[in-house]
Each structure stands twice: as C-alpha cells, then as structure tokens.
Amino acid sequence: MAAANAKFIVLIGFFIAVEASLLPHSDKITHLPGQPQVQFQQFSGYLTVDEKKEKSLFYYFVEAEVDPHSKPLVLWLNGGPGCSSIGVGAFSENGPFRPNGQVLLRNEYSWNREANMLYLDTPIGVGFSYSTGSSAYETVNDEITAKDNLVFLQHWFLKFPQYRNSNLFITGESYAGHYVPQLAKLMIQLNNKKTIFNLKGIALGNPLLEFTTDYNSRAEYFWSHGLISDTTYNLFTSGCNYSRYVSEYYRDSVSFICSRIMSEVNRESSRFVDKYDVTLDVCIPSVLSQSKIISPKQNSERIDVCVEDEVTKYLNRRDVQKALHARLIGVRRWDVCSNILDYDMLNLEIPTISIVGSLIKEGIPVLIYSGDQDSVIPLTGSRTLVHGLAKKLGLNTTVPYRVWFEGHQVGGWTQVYGNVLSFATIRGASHEAPFSQPERSFVLFKSFLESRPLPQEF
C-alpha cells in the first residue's frame, strides 16, 4: 500500500511538473543584463518537439509595447539554414534591444511597437535549440524542420492560450523562403481538418524561392554595381553561372571551369565588400553574415557593422543565458550560425515559389520584399519570380509599379497583384533589411499588418 501511495505521489509530481512547464510565468524574463526599463513583458525558454529524440526548440517572445492582447502575433524565422532568429532577428534586426558593450540599447523601430514578436531558433542545433542525441543533427532537411516548427507552434499555444485567436503572421528572410511557406502549408492542411491557426499572411525578405532564378540574378547584380568586369560577367553567365557552382559545391564536384571563374569573381568583388549590402562597410574583425552558408566561401544612419560580434559576446555571457533560461547543450559557446547542424544543402534546389502560389489560392496574403543593396538574393530575381507567379495565377496588377515613402524620402518601390500578392523593395537596405534600414522596414511591416497600401506621398 505504501509503495502504491509513493508511486501515486511520483505521478502527481510528474503531472504538476508538466503542467508547470506549460505555464508562461515559468519562462518569464525578469530583466536582461544591461537592459533599460521597459513596460512590456518578455519570455524565453524551451519547448520539446520530439520526446523520443529529446529535441527542444528555444524561443524568445516579446509582447507588444501597448495592449498586447489586441495586437497580432508575428513569428519570425531567420535562415542560413542554421542561423539564429534570436541572435540575428531579435538582437540585430527588429527586436526591442541591440547589444552595445555591456548594455542593451533600445531599438526605436522595434517591431513589437505593432505586434507580439515570437522568435524561434530552428532547426535543432541552432542557437540555443538542442537535442541530447547527436544523431538528430545529422541530415536535417526542410521536411523535418517544417514538422518540428509546426509542433512547436502547437505547443506554444498551449503555453500561451491567450494568443490562440490572435491574427497570426509568419515572417522571415533568406532561407526562411523555404521555412515559412513550408510551415504555412502544414498549418493550412491542419486547419482544413480543424481550425487551429488564425493565419492572416506571410512576409518574406530577400527569400530563396527558386534556386536557379534567385542565384543566377547575382551575376547581373555584381556587374551592374561595378563589382566585376565585363569579361568576368560574360564568364559568370556563360562559362559557369552561380547556380551551377553552388550545385557542384554541395555535391563535392566543383569543376575546373567553375573554380576558375569563381576565383576571379571573388578576386574582383573583394572579401572586403559585404555581399549582403554592397554599399555597407564591413566589420574588419569578423567579415561574417547570417547567410554565409547559402553562399559557400563568400563572405544614411550610422549602422553598427560589428553588431554580430556584439551579439555573440552578449549571448555568450553566463548571466545573459541565465536570464534567458537558456543553456548550451553539445556546444561550448553560442554562435550566430550552427557548427553542429548537418543540413541537407541540396534542399536549396527545391523550389518553394509553387508553395507560395498554393497559399495565395487558399486566400493567404503574401508580401515578398527585397533590400535593394543585397547581391546574395537580389531584388531582380525576386521581382521576376513574383511577376511570373502572378501571371500563372491570373492575378491582375492592382497597384502599378510605383515608389512608396517613409517620411519625406522614397522608401522603395512596390507593385501589387490581385490585392493578395505584393512585391516591394526597401531602398538602401541589405539582405537583413531591418538591420540596415530599420525605419523603412518598420513602415513596410506596419502597412503589411494593417493590409494598407504603402504610403504614396509624404
């Protein structure tokens, strides 16, 4: 009898522990080291997405500054594949703070001014996300990532049920051009059985949508911006284009001609030009960027070009990790992009533009935007893909190509098809647009959430 009672007590303790793990207050951040005083709440922690493989994804959630329960919920995903949404998105781009030495500075154009922002480190092995079994890091692919992200969202709503009925938007950049549409597709499939997600739209910044078109637009961008010569441009388009080089690289079969041409491209374009923003100075200590993986062997307001170094130092602090309820499992230090994840890089070649089309058919509004100083996934490729998709879907132009404004300056250009598919550029912005053009990116974001046209005049 005593043994039975003891077993019952253990079971009760287990269920209490599980229930407690689903309570948001267990993940509440009381104060981040060096943080200024703020009125909004922050949460961070882990949610298990695979009990068998003990896979846990790490998130950082920032409530809206004012009246959060009336504001939409926005999930943000960074790309890579293998780069941290917390380190890049939250602490370098559109989150409330940016590290500067020992302190955090407020980001005046944080997206939590308009929405509740949820940042997810995905897949496992990225940022603070982990699995206790190292085999879980081997050959992770798009399909696995999408399923894990779906399970994460389902579990997250159990922890934060007050946001279940909020308007939900999924946003991201770069390789999130794969992550976001694939996740949204699974959400729609689930909703067709039983409505779970109140999905209202997706927004993709400088996204990889179609391997050949996106990658081969790089040569013209390099040439038109003076990064390569006429001779090298001709070789880069006829002798070996960029999609062929990347395809060969990830098959360990780089041909002599591609090797020779890429060496010349790299020599002329220089490693001291940031390919993610060809007009921006580089951080000399670390010429790095969140999308270094999709580009093998590539590396007006004052912009801190060394913010990545600042973020790395900050998130490696023990007191910061404790405040975030984060831990390092299987690695000795936090890195912007994972060194332990073995992603199936041939997934780069899987087009997702058709999935975007299927979402539009389901009535989900889509915004594709481009920082116009990015040569990694240039605006020309994205614009071509959007126009082609609109034509395929039979969508008429509802807003002809025009400028849009932020304040008294041109913020970029935009075109809208059928009031459901939009393309926009952000003038002067990099691959990580909210990092280099925070105010213009914020105007674009706010218009997207409100389903309003971008400002036509100042």
TrEMBL record:
GO molecular function per UniProt: serine-type carboxypeptidase activity
Enzyme class, broadest EC rank: hydrolase
Any single GO BP term: proteolysis
Signal peptide: 1-20
InterPro entries given in the database record: AB_hydrolase_fold, Peptidase_S10, Ser_caboxypep_his_AS, Ser_caboxypep_ser_AS
Subcellular location: Secreted
Keyword list, A-Z: Carboxypeptidase, Disulfide bond, Glycoprotein, Hydrolase, Protease, Secreted, Signal
EC nos: 3.4.16.-
GO cellular component terms given for this protein: extracellular region
Chief location bin: secreted
Coiled coil ranges: none
Domain of life: Eukaryota
Record's function text: Probable carboxypeptidase.
Family according to the record: Belongs to the peptidase S10 family.
PANTHER family: CARBOXYPEPTIDASE, SERINE PROTEASE FAMILY S10 SERINE CARBOXYPEPTIDASE
Protein name: Carboxypeptidase
Organism: Penstemon smallii
Lineage, uppermost ranks: Eukaryota, Viridiplantae, Streptophyta, Embryophyta, Tracheophyta
